[in-house]
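haha ok so turns out i had the wrong file open the whole time. this is the CORRECT one, sorry everyone. sequence first:
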Amino acid sequence: MPYRCHFRCKAGLAYGWGHLVRAATLAAYLRQRPDIWQVTFAVDGEAESRVFLDGRGLTDAILSAPGDGAERALLGANPPDLVIVDMLEPSPDLLARYRRDGCRLLVFSDTGIPHADADLVICPNLEEVWAATRNDRMIGGLDFVIVPAAIVAAGRARGPAPAAARRLFVNMGGSVSRRVFANAAATVERLAQRGFGGVFLLGYDRDFEIDADMRRRLRGFRLMDGTDRLADLFSASDIALTAAGYMRYDVAAAGLPTVLVSLVDHQHWFGKLFRAKGIADYGGSIVDGDPDALAARVVALADDPAARARYSDTGRRLVDGKALERIAAAAEDLLRRAGKAVS
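then structure:
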């Protein structure tokens, strides 16, 4: 009998989508090995989450608040050997509730919290930002950044940096608020006036509509909702302007030279970290920043093929796309050490 693995995550306009994207990518990967893994999946989210999960092949995933009747019924029918939790800051009560069922617990922690109830904590940012929290239950660093295989392949196929870079990919996360969009659109409008064009990816969830006047002001840019074809969009772009959320890993693996911006406080640290490592440039906050200054920063990178080549090479080298294999191996090792075996 294969290992039974249950995923719990959360997504939404106010919460973001990175946790759902990462968890769904890992769940889909484990399902490719049905002799080893039997997977169930629950997300605290809205209808947009359902559409996203269906697109990833997780059609039997449930929309469910943590510990509600739907999830209890699911776990009752499929008692897990392992629960994988991917949320911003899961409460100790929630983690203890899963542990009471007698299973092992793997938690993703982007903020370096050690989570005493977890058997294994994976923090992609651990070695870069929160090294002081490291203990023998925590593993992390860029080796554990999950990136879809198609994006890694796009990075390997990327050629030399072109002399002129005017094809721009823009994204402010999986969910975009009216305020963030307004400030980002002001920057993109200035870039459109400088001859840039490309794609403005709006994500899966937003609290506004786009009128004809805004579309006119962003001429040359195709406004798109969320898509699973990121690799194709990256391949068709010379440069990117994105939030320093999970997308920063995708553009790095794709070798797409990028100016990162922050939407919330912790993204400020991620942006500074990527700039220090030579993976991307960082332009500060998109929420209260100056659109003229940010547009000028994008233009400067676009006009510097040597800098673009450095960012592209460094990103592809440091985000190698093998995290899914490493995490699956770590999960299997955790269950073997607990005395559980595939039968």
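The longest helix spans residues 178-193.
again sry for the mixup
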